[in-house]
Design a protein that fits this description.
It contains 19 helices and no strands. It has a single domain, classed as Amino acid/polyamine transporter I (Up-down Bundle). The N terminus is likely disordered.
Length: 463
Amino acid sequence: MATPPNSSHASSQRWSSRWLFVLAAAGSAVGLGNIWKFPYIAGENGGGAFVLIYLVCIAAVGIPIMVSEVLMGRKGRSSPIHTMRKLAKVSSRSERWSILGWMGVLAGFLILSYYAVIAGWAVSYIWASGSGAFDGASAQAVGAHFDAFLASPIELIGYQTGFMILTIWIVGRGVTKGLETAIRWLMPLLFLLLIALLVYSFNSGGFGQGFAFMFDMKWEAVTADSWLIAMGQAFFTLSLGMGTMMAYGAYVPDDANLGTTVVTIAGLDTLIALAAGLAIFPIVFANGLEIAQGPGLTFVTLPLAFGQMPLGDLFGALFFLLLSFAAITSAISLTEPALAYLVEEYNAKRQRVAISLGIICWALGLGTVFSFNIWSDITFVGGLTFFDTVDYFSQNILLPLGGMLITFFAIWMLPKGLVDQQLGIDSPKLSLGWRLVAGIIAPLGVLAVFLSTTWPLLSGLWQ
């Protein structure tokens, strides 16, 4: 039988300042996908027109759900699971609502299991780029390097293990000594690296093309799918639906204005994504290479481009260092919901729980490692590999469902006065407007994304 939950775990801890929370939440939001995905989908879906649509979706979908999560976390002052139990009790609702906390914890844990593997790729490329492995290399040679790397489970496990050890060491040290110390160093360094890459990109000879690709108003390229993509990106990029913001919200000081704080986080996240695009695409255009998305851009196209340019070794290494910093700030946030729950539930020492979680997550991540080599022919539902299955279930099922239900609970289940008090709302019109946006528009937007991403798989199963 478990010992009584240690409710003092979160209630006794706080971010030392509002700005530290902003940096921590932005660090969680800025990850691997943010740096390579957003600039690409912006360029392919209307450039500047898509950026405007995306900002609308951030305001109507991303920010309301994030405010709901942080607000609930600050009110509950516990892990997401215990927060949902407390808030359900306060609201005279069923304790079954705690399943939202479980969904978030499970989603974060699953995502971390494969995130650590892919982050390990970025770490390995710091050395590969800096040592001149791609100097003057052909496209075939760079592609062969990446293929050989993926085909080596020992190498992948080595980098996965190192990344996981660093993540667990940071979160095991607690909010002040661990999370805050890491954020104080990593986020400013991330900004500096991004500025250095921007300066390098500006002088690459392709800056005009890169800028046009991302920001020219191409309304003719905007489709209904573009709106769905924008809503999905607005939701996923802010680390919503996985309990992270609820867990981080438990440490937010009582006097912090949640509205302005969340808007700042969303703005910082968007700014970094746009800056990353301006750092990446001019280099690609300057070398006459094909614009690609995802691993193809990050681990083949860019190393090829850096290999052809002056000081490419240095700036290639800096780019992958930037990616690694973005990955570690996201990874520590993915660990926090599960870790906070276990510390509270079992009165356990944080360091021991962190190590135990790390070992289990590392073992699960081996499935992702093997998906690229010895298990590549093993598929599950819909022909998905182990990695694709875990990714699909966490990203396309758990996160959207969690996000929709969290904001629904925050607006329609919690006492109205409690929400208004947490948000500092004293106007009936403002309160009504908030309930309309956060309680109807935001959930419907995520529902549309959920249906658009799950329908292809479901229809394929029925055929």
